[in-house]
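User: Show me an example of a complex going from sequences to structure tokens.

Assistant: Sure. Here are the input components:
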Amino acid sequence: MEDIKETFYHTVAPLDFGYNYRVGTYLQRYIDALKDKKILGAKCPQCGKVVVPPRKYCGACNKVREEYVELSQEGTLENYTVGHITLEKGQVNQAESPYIVGMIKLGGADNLLVGKVAGVSPQEVKTGMRLKAVWKDQTEGEYSDLDHFEPV
Amino acid sequence: MRNVGIIGIGYTPVFVSKRKEVNIPEMISEAVDAGFQNTGLTPADIDAMVFGNMHTFEGVNLPHLWAAEHIRSLGKPVMRIATGGTTGMAAFHAGYYHVASGMADVVMVVTYEKHSEGDAQVGLMGIITPEVMTMLAAGIDVTGGSGMGAIGGGSAGGISFQASSYLYHSGAGIEHIDEQAALERRNAAKNPYAHLKDPEATAEKIAQTPLVSWPIRFGHICPTTDGATVCILASEEKAAKLADKVAWVLSVANCASDATTANLIESQITDPAEHLPAIIASKQAYERAGIVDPKKEIDYVEIYNGFAHQTLMYLEKIGMCEVGEAHKLQEAGELEMNGRCPVNASGGVVSTNSIGTSALNRVTEAALQVLGQAGEHQVEKDVHTALAHGWGGLMQYVTITILGDKPKKA
């Protein structure tokens, strides 16, 4: 096959696309509670279902959630995946070792919270396992304060 | 509403990783030319155009205007549609609305993607970045390796929870995902417009590819493809004058749920594989087409499967079989080209993914089966009705199109 002559024009737009998203009222409450090692949800005044982290609207009822509730630090693993790669700052790399990310139903919540699961191997992890929250010693009021979940 | 039919299809000559000898508008023009050649129409016959491609993938914000001369749209109404993975079928639906409403008699739908000239990962981040808030709302720490990396990276990571849930609820195993990928790559080998073709593909070969985010491995994932597709729609009256054979649109439907990265939370739905939009859209499409039992009345299905488990999962969602049954149909050989429930004889998205075209190709491939013009990948059974499915948006948007060999009775 004949070689195709390729001429590229590689363009880089010299724009700094930094964004500053405000977390808003509901997530601010959630983050503030993390500093105190508490997990907050918000309750719908109509159906009574609690979502974590708190969100303003209950879509099913079309109601504004106004009540915040503290959730149990223990829950059930409802779904999980095992990551074999990482994605950081746009770079895909092989993970140092496979790691578990779970979707966890905390006591008192009606939806699932996503979190890292440690203290159990990817071979042994099972849907339905009971897990508990493990916090950083020094909390800062950040998502990373809630470090991971581990088997009860 | 007027009856609308597909009177022409045009593909680029090939769908491959890198079209080196043409630029973006030149590549698109190849599909437009093919559409005209296959129908004998000229630009003067086209009343309006709908254009679709993925936002941000090539960094071109107004490609439909950029490529105006190449798509022969000068002086015509042009509408651009971008709804993520579903773009191609959303554009098709917009074309359908034009004709069904009586606003136009003949509409050309043009879709493309030239992945090799952009960066799909950056493009996806451009879609995901505004979703930082949604990730925070799901409780995900977005600040580092335990952020997006925690869900395995990119849409493959995001989809892993869906696949995990599908396996849990259906009783299928990862080996069924391996086999589905292999089956479709074997089908692709018979489709001249497919990208990843492997006539010798086996589940064992797919199983040797590395895991990305369990249960999704490299061999389950679609490629990035360069290609363009055109589809020409006409009213019943015009179709009678312009075409010998027509694939008739019996119904269209689409449905969205709330915006969620990775489909983690649909408001209070806790199962990422529940996928209510697929259930709602397919029900609406059946009702509109007058279909009572899709298992008996739909002869052929094209599923949008960026990831191989989705063929099996969506067959269940759209009611082509019961929950937990799709992998058993696969084991029995019923999903193959000579089976009773043939699906993705084209090779599916898992074999070919120039993303703007991907959901339109589900329609055009279903149309080719109805028309009996699929050539080497024509399925064995007679196809009187076919269903095309699209999946995309922020993972929670579904489009459905049902085609038939006869126009819908008034």
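The lines above are the inputs; the final block is the predicted structure for all two components together. The helical segments of chain A are 24-35.
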